[in-house]
Design brief:
Elements: H1 7-10, H2 12-139, H3 142-155
């Protein structure tokens, strides 16, 4: 094997120039832009990580707030139900008292009417008895009437015979 040392014929200069040009181009164009791109990516990753931490904190705060609100609503519901029960019980007791008073007043009214009608009935019975007695009394002769009056007065504590 024989080596060709003629630089022009072997295009070694051209190859070295091409390699030098590629190294220079890489350093000039790709180096700074890759470093810059790398810095941008790192910056964006850090921003994304910070945003994630902030979002996680916000989520935690929101979840905590929702839990607190749920407990507040639950206690408000319990208080409201207790107040509702109390209101219903108070209205029930009020209506019961009013109805009891009305029934008591009605009962007393009925009792008073019964008593009044019973007394009226007694009067009418006495009138009827008195009318019958007076009819018999007036149907008697004068002598019989006198004798009956004397006996009656004697029995109720009148004069002695």
């Amino acid at each position: 094997m024989k080596f060709n040392f003629d630089l022009i014929e072997t295009n070694t200069i051209n190859i070295f120039l091409l390699i030098a040009l590629l190294v220079y181009a890489k350093n000039v164009s790709f180096g700074p832009s890759l470093e810059k791109r790398q810095e941008e990516i790192i910056f964006k990753l850090e921003n994304a990580q910070n945003d994630f931490v902030k979002a996680a904190d916000s989520y935690y705060i929101a979840e905590k707030t929702v839990t607190q609100n749920f407990f507040c609503l639950q206690s408000w519901k319990n208080i409201y139900e207790e107040e509702k029960k109390t209101i219903v019980q108070n209205k029930y007791l009020l209506m019961k008292n009013v109805l009891d008073q009305n029934f008591l007043a009605s009962k007393k009214l009925v009792q008073n009417l019964e008593t009044k009608y019973f007394l009226c009935l007694q009067k009418y019975v006495l009138y009827i008895v008195a009318v019958k007695i007076l009819r018999r009394f007036f149907s008697l002769s004068q002598k019989e009437q006198s004798k009956l009056l004397e006996i009656t007065l004697y029995k109720i504590g009148g004069k002695n015979k």
